[in-house]
Design a protein that fits this description.
It contains 10 helices and 5 strands, in the order H-H-H-E-H-E-H-H-E-H-E-H-E-H-H. With 199 residues, the protein is α/β, with parallel strands linked by helices. Strand 3, helix 7 and strand 4 form a beta-alpha-beta unit. Helix 2 packs antiparallel against helix 9, helix 6 crosses helix 7 and helix 7 runs parallel beside helix 8.
Length: 199
């Protein structure tokens, strides 16, 4: 796990300055603000500020788990590619589809067999991956459920919210690998001094 200080590029600094000039995020609590801003930044879409759904208390626990070394599972390699400061588990290459089971759903089963409970799950592509996760007794530290699409995405994210699991989701069809990895990166990049201040 790389805890070295992250160097922010001047282009990113200017991008955040412009984002904050157009969107007031000051009313959000710290981790919620970090997630909202990084997702908005990744998509250049201000509407995520009102589309995202999350709970600060759940994010605080997830932050502690993440920085304590909990595994990070992703549904596709595109999400993994966006998470550059942490090893991830993606079992899609090993998965196979079958009757009533998509390849993405099978990958989630395989990943759970590998990591067990307490992981952070980052799903940005397949609604069926999120649906499968909800059938498992995964006891996740956090589920970032931001699959994209016109078929099943809205419904799977609504089911995630109804499950009561600690989660980051959004209400609309929007989502995708870039925003899912951005939400996880927001927790990775947030200063580790934050947890010391909370204790």
């Amino acid at each position: 796990m790389n805890r070295a200080a992250r160097v922010v590029h001047p282009i990113e600094e200017e991008s955040y300055r412009r984002l904050r000039a157009r969107l007031d995020t000051s009313h959000f609590p710290p981790l919620t603000r970090a997630v909202v801003e990084r997702v908005v930044h990744s998509a250049a879409d201000l509407d995520y500020a009102t589309d995202l759904v999350m709970d600060e208390g759940a994010l605080e626990k997830a932050y502690a788990a993440l920085h304590g070394g909990a595994p990070v599972v992703v549904d596709v390699e595109m999400v993994a590619a966006g998470i550059t400061r942490r090893e991830t588990v993606c079992r899609l290459r090993d998965a196979e589809s079958g009757p009533g089971l998509t390849r993405s759903a099978h990958a989630i089963r395989l990943a759970y067999e590998q990591v067990g409970p307490g992981a952070l799950w980052v799903i940005g592509n397949a609604p069926t991956a999120l649906e499968e996760l909800l059938t498992l007794d995964a006891s996740p530290a956090l589920v970032i459920g931001l699959p994209v699409g016109f078929v099943g995405a809205v419904e799977s994210k609504a089911a995630l919210r109804e499950s009561g699991l600690p989660a980051v989701s959004n209400v609309s069809e929007k989502g995708g690998s870039a925003v899912a990895s951005a939400a996880l990166n927001a927790l990775l990049y947030h200063p580790t001094s934050y947890s010391e201040e909370k204790s």
